[in-house]
Design a protein that fits this description.
Length: about 750
């Protein structure tokens, strides 16, 4: 913002810096944005993991030999016990049916199944998956409270025949963790996904059964498969679930994984019919007259389970909020794009039409004062001043040296250039330097630029023409990046041309432009005096003064032909410092002028139009923008991958279209747009973190101090029509923002 590179001094500066050290240490505030982003990503990843889709409980596997499976197991019952190194099987006694339900709990179908079981005084075994139990712990607890038995069905339903022992251990452990958190118990019952009856065991699945038994689990297979996953109809489900006359059975049904309405209806008929035939419906250990499969969990394991369930619930809640935020950012992005395209086209047609003049007093030819606040600009100041004396418009140049220690003032004085004056002061900050310049200015129109900015010969003349309209109090020029040959420079070039200059056209039409860039701006002295001059209340004095002028009833417009060439920061650290100050300063200015929202007249208009737009597009939208990339990662990992990629490239295409339009308006070559996709993936992430840090600084009561960015002074304006007469080096703005 506004070339803010000045060091604060005096009591006020010391007081602010002291406040900046309170509450949260600076280094911790630097880390907090990353922590916030990582926490949001972690919540999304957790949510995606526990919401992984459960496959239908059916899979065609290649036939495998069964010569390693004991014949007594193949010919035995549906309950296989390999605990203790042995291998035995158990069958359910006659006239006993153990109903089993796989893949749940499901928030819709499990309660209906439980209601039917309760209605007919029947018990069952629910083989739950860890993903579903983590999401719906209350249903698991209800199962246990109503006397049903719980078995494990792995965490996320893989075919264990293809998994390592390490993966099997993990599936069982996570499944138990979810059960402990939901109901405070462990279970010794287990059913492998994609299993069926005992005679279907083969050389691939038998080792899993043996290994699970060695871990202390009883493997429960089936006697009868209802095949309800096929939804064959109520009568066929009942027929498939009915054992031979009087025989006991373990019956497979499902309470999750799809539409289970037929299962619920079949169950409501099946239970009373078979009860009338003398069958009892009990859970497994009750039917086998064995000790309970449940063991209470206490201590650390219980709290780990509860913590897991809590985190899963939190991830769902946070994801819900993030989805709302994603919808909001989607609306804001498209609204901003639409407004920029529409209103910038209106601005261009108006200002470029034949015979256009800014006002009744055109053209503006009277001399103007140019203020150049400078602090340690030895590398740049000569090029800056020489570019000004070649101005096609008459200028009075005033360099205000703000306590430089590198001989900046002496360099200007030694040039001995006509029309150039130097005023020295102790270091007091840029606002104080500008106010000193205003007091010493000789003309009614005052141009402000930074000590490391280069103007074209036509810049001043173009910049002051809007003052032909007596209602205009300030004019924003067109700040452009000169060092576009670096990757960071190219990305900032795209940002300046698209984000800043299209925005200025839009805000000009809406009459609520938020910032006159410190690199290239002009003011009417009367307007400055009415609002009290430049204020040091914020780190963005250019945004602060612009908002104050709006509130005082002045028009603020954009002069696209008034070009100034800047040197963008070339390192990530310098870019971070610059943008951090811009973001935080903008937030300070918005907060300072918040009362405009409830005021009347021009101030109220700006408060109810300008402040909301600036807040939405410059603070809220960038704050929510990371959600686009977070959900991109989420969609790539958890799907739908194709639609996610298509949506991301769709947004990128719209951005590219807007950027190309902005480049055409500014008569820029389109070549830098080749790096736009990379900019969206890398550069934008840095801007996210900077804005988050600004928010955290504001919320924790921190204060920033002015910082001087190191410049190389190696940028020259492009040759040709737009180039200044002075060849050689041109340096650029540290904080002249946009």
């Amino acid at each position: 913002m506004g070339g803010g590179r000045r060091r604060r001094s005096g009591r006020r500066s010391a007081s602010r810096q002291a406040r900046g050290r309170r509450m949260i240490p600076l280094r911790l505030r630097h880390l907090l944005p990353l922590v916030v982003l990582l926490a949001m990503m972690a919540m999304l990843m957790l949510r995606g993991y526990v919401h992984s889709e459960i496959l239908a409980d059916y899979r065609i596997r290649p036939e495998a030999a069964a010569d390693t499976v004991p014949q007594k197991i193949l010919d035995g019952g549906p309950v296989v016990d390999t605990r203790g190194g042995g291998a035995t099987s158990l069958d359910v006694p006659d006239h006993r049916i153990v109903l089993t339900f796989d893949d749940g709990p499901d928030p819709k179908w499990t309660p209906e199944v439980l209601d039917v079981l309760k209605k007919h005084h029947a018990h069952a075994v629910f083989f739950i998956t860890g993903t579903m139990a983590s999401r719906y712990p209350d249903l698991v607890k209800r199962m246990v409270d109503e006397g049903h038995e719980i078995g494990l069905h792995t965490f996320n339903h893989p075919d264990l025949s293809y998994q390592s022992k390490k993966r099997i251990d993990w599936e069982l452990t996570q499944n138990q963790l979810a059960l402990a958190g939901a109901a405070g118990i462990r279970t010794s019952l287990f059913r492998p996904p994609y299993s069926s009856s005992a005679d279907a065991l083969d050389n691939a699945s038998w080792p899993v059964t043996q290994y699970v038994g060695a871990r202390g689990y009883l493997t429960v297979l089936t006697t009868a498969d209802s095949e309800d996953w096929r939804r064959p109809g109520v009568r066929e489900i009942i027929a498939n679930s009915t054992p031979e006359k009087g025989k006991g059975a373990v019956v497979l049904m499902h309470d999750s994984g799809g539409d289970r309405s037929q299962t619920v209806r079949a169950l409501d008929t099946y239970l009373p019919e078979l009860q009338a035939e003398g069958y009892r419906f009990d859970h497994l250990t009750g039917a086998l007259k064995a000790p309970s499969a449940h063991t209470a969990v206490t201590g650390l394991e219980l709290w780990k389970g509860k913590a897991w369930v809590f985190l899963v619930a939190a991830s769902d809640d946070i994801t819900g909020v993030l989805v709302v935020g994603l919808a909001a950012i989607g609306f804001l992005v498209f609204a901003r794009f639409g407004l920029m395209l529409l209103l910038s086209a209106m601005h261009t047609r108006r200002t470029r039409r034949s015979g256009f003049v800014w006002g009744p007093h055109a053209p503006v030819t009277e001399p103007v004062s140019v203020l150049v606040p400078a602090y340690n600009e030895a590398k740049c100041i000569e090029n800056t001043v020489r570019s000004l004396i070649r101005s096609e418009h008459p200028v009075d140049i005033l360099v205000i040296d703000d306590g430089s220690s590198d001989g900046t003032a002496r360099i200007v004085e030694d040039l001995n250039l006509p029309g150039v004056r130097v005023v020295r002061q102790l270091n007091a900050g840029k606002p104080a330097a500008l106010n000193r310049g205003i007091a010493n200015a000789r003309h009614d129109i005052i141009v402000m630029m930074d000590g490391d900015t280069v103007f074209e010969p036509s810049t001043v003349g173009e910049l002051v023409q809007p003052f032909a309209d007596p209602r205009v109090g300030a004019v924003a020029g067109n700040a452009k990046v000169g060092n576009k040959d670096t990757l960071i420079g190219a990305w900032q070039h795209i940002e300046y041309v698209m984000g800043f200059n299209l925005d200025r056209r839009m805000y000009d039409v809406l009459r609520c432009m938020p910032t006159i860039p410190g690199a290239v701006g002009a003011f009417r002295r009367t307007a400055l005096n009415r609002v009290g001059g430049m204020s040091d209340d914020t780190l963005a004095e250019d945004t602060d003064i612009t908002m104050a002028l709006h509130r005082d009833g002045w028009k603020v417009v954009y002069a696209e032909k008034a070009r100034a060439w800047t040197e963008a920061p070339e390192s990530v650290q310098q870019l971070w410092s610059q943008r951090y100050r811009w973001c935080y300063g903008t937030m300070q200015a918005i907060w300072k002028h918040r009362r405009a929202v409830v005021e009347r007249g021009p101030s109220g208009r700006f408060g109810r139009v300008g402040l909301p737009l600036v807040s939405l597009f410059m603070v809220v939208a960038p704050l929510l923008a990371p959600l686009i990339d977070l959900f991109l990662v989420y969609g790539l990992l958890f799907g739908p991958t194709g639609r996610t990629i298509a949506a991301w490239f769709g947004v990128l295409a719209i951005q590219a279209g807007c950027a190309a339009y902005a480049f055409v308006l500014d008569r820029e070559r389109l070549t830098p747009l080749v790096s736009l996709p990379l900019q969206q993936l890398l550069y934008r992430q840095l801007m996210y973190v900077v804005l988050l840090q600004s928010w955290i600084t504001a919320l924790t009561g921190g204060r920033l101090r002015w910082q001087k960015l190191r410049r190389k002074g190696q940028v020259a304006a492009p040759p040709g029509e737009a180039a200044p007469a002075e060849a050689g080096r041109a340096a650029a703005v540290d904080g002249g923002a946009a």
